[in-house]
Structures are given as C-alpha cells and as structure tokens.
Design goal:
Helix content is 40%, strand content 13%. The chain contains 14 helices and 8 strands. The protein has an 8-stranded mixed sheet, with helices on both faces. It starts with 10 loop residues before the first helix and ends with a helix.
C-alpha cells in the first residue's frame, strides 16, 4: 500500500473532520445566536418603540422610551452629566428609526479596537460628545419639540461650558433635528422655558477641552428674544442619509395599505389593517412631516397631503451626506430612486428646501457629499464620512 505524503491527511480523516464540523454546526450556530442576542439586547426597546412606540406612550406603558441623554447605558439628567471645565464645542448625536445611542459608539461586528464617530471625534477633534435616545415611534414633530426643550435645558444648566453646538442626525434623527429647529424658532414665553428646564430627565452635560485664541462668542439670544437659547449656540448640522423629502419605502407601504383597503375583501382589509399598525413616526417618514399641523390635518392620509416647508436656520452650516448603494454600472434612474437602499438620492438632497441658494437665510450654507456604494447603515461606519465630520465639526 503506497504511503501518504508527509503531512497529507487521509481521506478517512478528512471525512471524519467534515462530519464533525457538520455535527457541531447547529451547536456553533446556536452559540453564535446567543452571543449575538446578548450583544444586541439593548436594541429590543428601541426596535419595539420604533414599531409601536406611539401606542406604548398612549397607554403609559413603562416600555415607552423617553427622550434623554444617555451615558453607560442609562438615562442621565442634564445636571448629572457633570459638565465641568472650560467652554467646549459640543456635538450631540441623534440616532434614527429603531436605533439607540450605541450606534455612534460601538457595534457587535466591529473589529477589535474599532471606534465609531462619537468616541473618535471626542478624542481626535477635541469636542464633547453627547448622545440621545428617544421613542422613534412618536410623531417627528413630537420628538422635534422635545429635542428643542432638552437642548434648552442643556444650555441653561451649563451656560459656562457649552460652547458652539453641532448636531449630527442619522436618517430620522436628521428630520427630528430640523423639526427641533422649527420649534426652537417659534415664539416661546419665559415661563415655558422655565417649565422645560425644570422637567425631570431633561438635563445634560460633560467635561472640558482646550482653550483657543478665537474671540469670545456672545451666546445670548439677546434681550427680549423669544427663540430657544440653544439656537444661539448652534453652528453646524450634519444630516446623514436623511429623507428630507420622504422615504420611498414608506410611500410604497402607504400606497399598498390604501390599495388593499380599496379592494375591500376580508383578506385585503386584514392586511391593510396590519400595515396601518406601523407607528406614527414611520408614517410621518412618507412625506417627512415635521410640524404638528400637517399630521393633524384632515387630508393627512391623502396620497399628496399638505406639508409645511420648514425653513433653514440662519447662520447654520448644513452638511448633507448621502450614500449611493448601487454600482455605477446600474441605470442612473435606479441609483437615483434607491439611493442608499432606504433613502432616495433626491430625497436626501432635499432640493425643495436645500437647493435654492438664493433663498438661503443670512449666514446659512449648504454642502453636499456623496459616498459611492454605501448603504444606509454604512454611513455610520464609513471612514470617509468620519473624516468629513472631523474636518467640518
């Protein structure tokens, strides 16, 4: 019998190893699922709230999330964030639908030592990074108004440590930032601000950074001004994969639900009712409804509902960061429509609001950056996106 070359396993040994791997595959798969489940268990509440958060809040369910700053996996009141030290540029990160604050910090499948945008910006750009979590199933305008209140509490509780303010929003988070700007710009009385600042859970902050030689900035909104005081600090807004003109996915869901209802058979009515159980936050994404009056309108469910145009804020630099998922050899119309896979390119650009340079408020600028072959979630980990944020923060 011929001898096997040295180091060459026999067919029997190879077969036994293959059989062993096949036999243990279910165990290894189950172990992976357990590890993955433990790593992602923090997503359970955000996903539940994104899908049904409006219903949870309506019945005061304890699982309904409340917008708050987050640190170490816990809600933190503004005063408890311990913002000491000198005045420092502060970046507030706002997640998207069904997300939480950890998407800006870490991920289960990230390489060892890999740091996401928040920690890296804090270290490399010398900024203060703050993170929010909120109920993404509520109306965009409800979350926008609450964000404005929370930012008001932040700057009022820490007037000597909050310097320039930058807001970074992914997907729905960008819409909530824009809605917050709208409500912050509305006339509000001092009593309303006082009430906002005293609400439990609406407090935040963190530690200092290097001084610079720039002349001091007057962050006062001015005597008699009724705008939210955080607007005086705001300098930059980053919108990552934000559907400024609505989501094609939600538009199709809305059309399908209406069509099934019109057919008016028991199975189609059942499917239509099931589709319509999606949260108000998801439904608002159809046309990116940012103010209360639009979703309260009697025609809000029409195919072409009314939508209030929310203007850009004066003196703010807007940065629109878009991903293009399909390869360049695909038809241009498909690349335009699907965009990053969830947000169309045209919607992310928001031509109706951002496209007319002549109509920009004083001191306002708009920059657009496109990242090829990047899907919606990839915008949260893309190295070029980080370098862009670092450069313009």
């Amino acid at each position: 019998m011929p001898e096997l070359p040295e180091g060459q396993p026999s067919r029997l040994r190879r077969a036994l190893k293959a059989a062993g791997r096949a036999a243990t595959a279910p165990v290894r798969g189950a172990a992976y699922l357990v590890r993955s489940g433990r790593a992602h268990q923090h997503f359970f509440l955000p996903v539940l709230n994104g899908a049904l958060g409006d219903q949870l809040a309506a019945r005061y369910d304890p699982r309904a999330l409340r917008m708050s700053f987050r640190h170490g996996g816990h809600d933190v009141a503004v005063a408890d964030l311990d913002l000491g030290g000198p005045r420092q540029k502060t970046v507030v990160f706002v997640h998207g639908l069904m997300g939480d604050e950890l998407i800006w910090q870490t991920g289960f499948q990230d390489a060892p030592g890999f740091r996401r945008y928040g920690p890296r910006l804090a270290e490399e750009a010398g900024v203060r990074a703050l993170y929010l979590r909120f109920n993404s199933g509520l109306h965009l305008s409800e979350n926008g108004r609450e964000l404005s209140r929370l930012l008001t509490a932040l700057v009022e509780a820490h007037p000597d440590t909050i310097g320039e303010l930058a807001l970074v929003g992914h997907s729905m988070g960008g819409l909530i930032i824009r809605s917050a700007g709208y409500y912050g710009s509305q006339a509000i009385g001092s009593e309303a601000l006082k009430t906002v600042g005293s609400e439990p859970g609406l407090e935040s902050g963190e530690a200092g950074a290097p001084e610079n030689d720039d002349p001091p900035i007057n962050y006062s909104a001015g005597p008699g001004s009724q705008k939210a005081p955080w607007l005086a600090h705001l300098r930059t807004i980053f919108l990552l994969g934000t559907p400024n003109d609505g989501s094609w996915l939600e538009q199709n869901s809305h059309f399908a639900a209406r069509l099934l209802r019109r057919i008016d058979l028991f199975p189609t009515r059942f499917l239509s009712n099931a589709l319509n159980q999606r949260s108000n936050g998801i439904k608002d994404m159809r046309r990116s409804i940012l103010v209360d009056e639009d979703w309260q309108d009697a025609h809000a469910d029409d195919l072409a509902p009314p939508r209030t145009a929310v203007p850009l804020l004066p003196g703010v630099a807007y940065h629109i960061l878009m991903g293009i998922w399909l390869k360049t050899n695909r038809p241009a119309a498909l690349r335009q429509y699907f965009g990053d896979g969830l947000v169309g390119r045209g919607s992310a650009q928001g031509a109706e609001i951002f496209g007319n340079e002549a109509a920009l408020p004083p001191g306002t600028s708009v920059r657009t950056a496109e990242f090829g072959q990047q899907h919606h979630g990839g915008l949260l980990t893309h190295p070029e996106v980080f370098q862009y944020l670092k450069h313009w923060t």
